[in-house]
Every structure is written in C-alpha cells, then in structure tokens.
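Predict the holo structure. Ligand: S-adenosylmethionine.
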Amino acid sequence: MQANLDSASLASRASHPDWLVEAVATDWPDQLEDILDASNARPPLTLRVNLARQSREQYLQKLSSLGIQATPGLLANSAIYLSEPMPVHNIPGFAEGELSVQDEASQLVAGTLRLEPGLQLLDACAAPGGKTSHILESEHSLTRLVAIEKEKSRLFRIEENLQRLKLAATLVCADAAVLASWWDGEGFDRVLLDAPCSATGVIRRHPDIKLLRTPEQVTELLVTQQQLLRNLWQCLKPGGLFLYTTCSILPEENQAQIRQFLDSHHDAKYEGIAADWGVECETGRQLLPSTSSGADGFFFSLLRKC
Ligand SMILES: C[S@@+](CC[C@H](N)C(=O)[O-])C[C@H]1O[C@@H](n2cnc3c(N)ncnc32)[C@H](O)[C@@H]1O
C-alpha cells in the first residue's frame, strides 16, 4: 500500500502515468527516479558518422573548424553529440550523406549483428531506415538486404534516407508477419526484428507517450511481438543469428518475451552479447534511460538457430 502511494506521488511529480511508474518501480526499483528524470529531460542531438566516408575524428575536426561544439559518444564508435541543437539540413555534410541523425543505442545494432561479406540479411520492421542504412554503411558486400515496412508512407522515408546516403536495399511494403505476402522461401543469415513496442525507452523524444500509452496497448503489443518473432524465425537459416530489439524498458516486452520464445523453440539458443554497456539480463542486454548517459532506453537479444 505504501509502495502504491509512493508510486502515485512520484507519478504526479514526474508527470508519468501511475501504471508506468508502478511498472518501472517493480522492474527497475534502483533506477526509478533516474529513469523518470531522464525521460523528462531534453533529448540530445546525436549523429552517426558515416564511417565508410571518414573517421569520427575527421568529422569532429570538421565541426570544430566550423565552430560547432561536439563530443564523441562513449558506447558506439560512430556516435557524436552536438552540444547545441540545430536544424538537420544545417548540419555540415548532412545532404551529402556524411552523417545521419540516430540515437547512440540504435547505433549499437549493426555491430551486434556480426556482419560479414556475402550474408543475406532481413530487416523486418525497417522504417525510417536508420538501422538499414547503418548496416549497409558497415558492410558493403552483403549478398542482399531486404527491408520490410508495413506503412507505405514510412517505406518512402527509407527510400529517402538510402538515396541521400547513396545506398541500396530491396524495399518491400508488407506485414512482415505474413510470410506468404513477401517471402520467396530463401533463408536469411541474419534477421533483425526491431519490433513495434511501447517506446517507454524513448519518452524524452515522444512525451505524448506519457498521455497516450495504456496497459491495454502494451498487452496487444506483446501478442504482435510474439507473432513477429515466431513467424520471422522461419526465415532464418540454421546457424543464422536473429537480433530482437525494442526501445522499451518493460521486461514483459523484452527478456520475458524472449524467454517465452525460447521455451517453445528448441532450435533457438540465446547467444549472449559480449559488451560493456547496459544491464545484462537473463536473455538480453538492456540500456535504461539515464541522466548520466546520452543513449535511449533500448533492449537487445541475440539468438542463434541450431
Ligand atoms: C521501431 S520502428 C523501426 C525503426 C527502424 N528499424 C529504424 O531503425 O529506423 C518499427 C517500425 O515497424 C513497422 N511495423 C510494425 N509492425 C510491422 C509489421 N508487422 N510488418 C512490417 N513493419 C511493421 C512500423 O510501421 C514502424 O515503422
């Protein structure tokens, strides 16, 4: 009862809904206040340097010569934080594809996929294409990259981003969970499922989530995520890697979702992610929103098909 009262008063002080504060208080009690403070803070403007064109150091020097203050990220080797926000089209080299705007947590995805020349890769929920383009920047010799997005207007955003960066992928407008609508039956070596989720790790970027997200929506998302996981698993070749990510901090969408999947798929093995960032959980690695880190809240789980 006391815990409920405390959560309610914290919820009102932090302008978060009671249900969400109670969930975070249960799952991340030690980090609760920091998560709420970080979720109410102004998000940084984070860039991803296109390392295929220049090093991060070279781009930092370019910014410095133009009098623009910036610092390197500590987690991803491509990440730069601009000290002051500016319109994206004014960022030096943006139109020429020297950089993209992308949170540092998302910049960890391409490295986690263990890319190699010749691989066939599926990016199942791809728009606006931040991770699609980073994968292509990171590995130029993929045999194919299929990027699926179910919203036509959002598929267009992927096209725009790839054109600016002079990259190419096979773009498909489809519901990724309905394999018959898009899959030719040829297996992938890597599958990235950046799943639709509660977005509770990115509230600072979308403060309306505090008003609009409901526990009932989270329950519906759990069904969608499990369905995407189960169906897309069929597209993965034996020996291939499946990376499940969300920008959620709710364990039910993350480690519990993967636990449920592993319990019902004996050809799936949790691979683990060797890294020094985030909180290591039973079936993944969780970055939490924090006032002492620039990265969004984000979950990663890497599975291998036996
Ligand atoms: C978290 S966002 C993906 C962000 C993207 N991976 C990036 O890095 O830029 C989730 C995307 O999945 C799309 N989506 C949701 N359900 C889908 C489905 N069943 N099939 C394909 N796309 C879906 C949404 O429209 C949304 O654009």
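The first strand starts at residue 45 and ends at 49. The chain has ten helices and 13 strands.
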